[in-house]
Amino acid sequence: MFKVIVVADDFTGANDTGVQLTKQGHSTITILDKHAIKSYENTLDAIVIDTETRTALPKEVYQEIEEVSQLIKPYKDAIIYKKVDSTLRGHIAVELKAMRDVLQPKLIVFAPAFPNNGRTTHRGIHMLNGTPVAKTELAKDPKNPVLTSELKSLLEKDMGVTVRHITLDEIRSDEFNMKLQSVVPSHDVLAFDAVEDDDLVRICTTVLRQNKKVLWVGSAGLADVLINTWQKEIIATLPVLTVAGSVTEVTRKQIHKALEDPQVKLVTIGGEKVLSNPKKEVERVVNESLQFMNQKYDVIIASAPQEHSVEDAVGQGYINNLTAEEVSERIAEVMGETTASIASAQNLAGMILTGGDTAVHVVKQLFADGCKINAELEMGIPLATLIGGPFAGLTVITKAGGFGNQESILNSIKFLRK
């Protein structure tokens, strides 16, 4: 499912925002056909829609953006980003009016600055390399002349709303969060100064912490900062789930090393209970794990954290006329089912899967098509993201049972917390 949806008014602008998403690890494409959106929802976590409305007539612009907004409205958990030209060309206010009418965000954040490319906003005036954009050659653009450098006037006329401009002094003050809270109840469209990337970081961090439905509006500069800040804010509050189905001594030592971290809790799947009453055992492990996660702990679910765990499970299997291989398969199946139940109930920063049988059962239970390999954290320990299914884009670290050193699981947990 999409985590980020971008609506852009031209193709190059769509791509220069899409590349910011790719840099942050999101699988991203740009599409021209708005009706193709749904066909990618289970294979990508970010999509950029190019509407080609920059040079269209205002009436056509409103209609096109209204239609696109209706198509993206169902994706309520996604970040919605309206990419605009960093020099204010195009029908920005008309597009925002259409999106506001359909999506009804609680807040619109307009920050077109792109400091690293010489686009800054100070005292409400948007500038290109220190010159107000309406006083540059862009004012003579035959297709898209820039008529004003002032953000408030740019939006207010065509949107029919009062825009509150947030100054640089307000953004940089220690009371910025309180100021924003006092402004939002009476204004849902805010324009912001920004002359450095740090200004954009403060804007994004403070607005994200308001926990409101936001329509973000800006150039590729804000997009880059927003996604980076959002990932840090979200992941910092999400738990890491480790599913350890391996019965090797290597994995046992790695589990006990990870448990030295006070933020990590262990939930053991009882092999004997899996064989005697699997439904009840799944319910118990899921509930225990979610309770820990609600208390901000990371969780390790393990089937054999002690040496005797394997012997106990095999002994119960013998009573049930099951071979050791059949016992192992049953436990792996239950671990996959348990993981799917947890992932459905709780957003995760990522998962660590150790043990080949366990890993494949988890991936199947999550209805993924497989995974995209992104990097190698340690020798033989890949970093990947799931592809396909409802959990597409979820970060996964896989580890063969006998691989790694004593700190490999702990290091993987710490990596996913970042």
Tell me what portion of residues adopts beta-strand conformation: 15-25%
CATH topology of the largest domain: Rossmann fold
Number of strands: 18
The main pleated sheet reads as: 8 strands, parallel
Distance between the termini: 22 Å
Poorly predicted segments? none
What is the domain total for the residues?
2
From the alpha-carbon coordinates, what is the Rg to the nearest angstrom? 25 Å
CATH homologous superfamily heading of the largest domain? Putative sugar-binding, N-terminal domain
Q: Which CATH C-level class of the largest domain is it? A: Alpha Beta
Global geometry: elongated
Number of continuous helical runs = 15
Coarse structural class: alpha/beta
How much helical structure, as a percent, in the residues? Answer: 40-55%
CATH architecture field of the largest domain: 3-Layer(aba) Sandwich
Textual characterization of the structure:
There is one protein chain. By secondary structure, the protein is an alpha/beta fold. The chain is built from 15 helices and 18 strands. It has helices at 11-23, 58-72, 92-103, 151-159, 168-172, 176-183, 197-208, 220-235, 249-258, 271-276, 278-294, 307-319, 324-345, 356-365, 408-417, and strands spanning 4-8, 28-31, 46-50, 79-83, 107-111, 119-122, 125-128, 131-132, 164-166, 189-192, 214-218, 240-244, 264-268, 298-302, 350-354, 370-378, 381-387, 395-399. The strands form three sheets. It has an eight-stranded parallel sheet, with helices on both faces. It has a seven-stranded mixed sheet with strand order 13-14-12-15-18-17-16, with helices on both faces. The two termini are 22 Å apart.
